[in-house]
Specification:
Structural class: alpha+beta
Distance between the termini: 75 Å
Strand content: 15-25%
Order of helices and strands: HHHEEEEEEEEHEHEEEHEEE
Number of domains: 2
Largest sheet: 7 strands, mixed
Mean pLDDT: 88
Shape: elongated
Number of helices: 6
Length: about 375
């Protein structure tokens, strides 16, 4: 009986119990420190992968093909390539064509790309744990989603200092071509029976330049020689804060970072700017002399990304200009849109170029961009 009582009251060996409990607590803390930290890192890397995929898809919509959203199309394939180029914990994410979705923006325009990436058990690639496996947790599932938007841009920078009229519907001598003039009244100011029609970019049925329809169209831009509005005639203008032939030439060859918007009124440069135009374009081409236009792929091919020969120019509202002319004012050049052109070269004093998609800016306080905006801003929205 005494022996049993002594065994009952004996506390020797309790240290091992506390050591065991402490060891379990240590393992739990280690699991938190190692595995939870690792999973946070994996989640951040998965988000990077999804972000890259969404942005890659949106970029392809703008610069490759806005309408091709098929599994083998450039938007889906660019999204997949960008996502898988960003591994998670050293392994590729699982992402397929079905994980790339095309959504509408808040205005109902189909310009969003959503990409979801996975490292998950049902995809065969879960993230392996380090310490949690001792508690029977061998893997963890990770997923991330991102949405990017090819939004209409409401501002532009690095704009070149010459402008051409926006495109209209030719009523006098259809179809519209480079030899037409914009006319809504006759020489006596009387309305024409079949006037030319221009609908601005902020209204339904916009008649102006379109980055998909007009992609690859070759245009010859000539110096204006009068008050008539021809599609191919350009007007030199002074970018805010700079004027004169030297500044004009520099702005062609370089990037003037002045931010411009829609509806801006342009101040025409006086005098003949044919010489400065040619010198400026020659300097611009010399920065990327081997670039060329691929007529099959409808894109500029260059070792530079992007080529400095892909530039933005404003197009002006032909109605606003024509109304000013009728009222006896000087040329009133009001920005109606911006278009991208790849400058191929010069022929005499004429600029030879191809219309190409171009990116723009989203500027706070600049107001909403018109739905017909030619340039697009690639942004993450979710």
């Amino acid at each position: 009986m005494n022996r049993l009582r002594r065994l009952r009251d004996d506390e020797s060996g309790m240290t091992f119990v506390f050591v065991g409990l402490g060891f379990m607590a240590f393992l739990a803390a280690t699991m938190l420190a190692i595995d939870v930290g690792m999973l946070f890192t994996a989640r951040a890397q998965a988000q990077n992968s999804a972000d890259a995929g969404a942005l890659g898809g949106a970029v392809a919509l703008v610069f490759n093909d806005y309408n091709d959203r098929s599994p083998d199309g450039p938007a889906v394939q660019s999204a997949l390539a960008a996502a898988t180029a960003n591994p998670v914990m050293g392994a590729n994410v699982s992402v397929g064509p079905a994980d790339v979705e095309f959504l509408n923006d808040a205005a109902g325009q189909p310009n969003r790309v959503r990409v979801t990436v996975y490292r998950r058990a049902d995809r065969g690639n879960p993230v392996a744990t380090q310490m949690a496996r001792y508690f029977g947790i061998n893997t963890a599932d990770i997923a991330a989603t991102a949405t990017a938007e090819a939004a209409p841009a409401n501002a532009m920078s690095c704009v070149k200092p010459f402008t051409i009229p926006d495109r209209w519907i030719e009523g006098q001598d259809p179809p519209w071509d480079a030899d037409d003039t914009f006319d809504v009244v006759d020489n006596r100011g009387r309305p024409l029976a079949n006037p030319d029609i221009y609908i601005p970019a902020d209204q339904p049925g916009y008649t102006g330049y379109n980055s998909e329809r007009d992609r690859g169209t070759q245009i010859t831009i000539k110096a204006s020689n009068g008050n008539n509005i021809y599609p191919s005639f350009y007007f030199p203008y002074a970018i805010e804060g700079s004027s004169g032939a030297d500044d004009y030439q520099w702005n062609i060859a370089n990037c003037n970072q002045t931010i411009m918007g829609w509806g801006d009124l342009l101040t025409a440069e006086p005098g003949n700017m044919v010489g400065p135009t040619q010198f400026g374009v020659d300097e611009l081409i010399a920065q990327d002399p081997t670039a060329y236009w691929d007529a099959v792929g409808h894109r500029a091919v260059s070792s530079m990304n992007p080529s400095p020969r892909i530039v933005a120019i404003p197009v002006f509202d032909p109605i606003y200009y024509d109304t000013g002319k009728q009222n006896g004012r000087n040329a009133d050049l009001k920005v109606a849109n911006y278009i991208g052109i790849f400058i191929e070269g010069m022929q005499g004093g004429d600029v030879i170029a191809r219309i190409t998609p171009i990116s723009g800016l989203i500027r706070g306080g600049a107001g909403p961009a018109p739905q017909g905006a030619f340039p697009r801003a690639i942004i993450l929205v979710q």
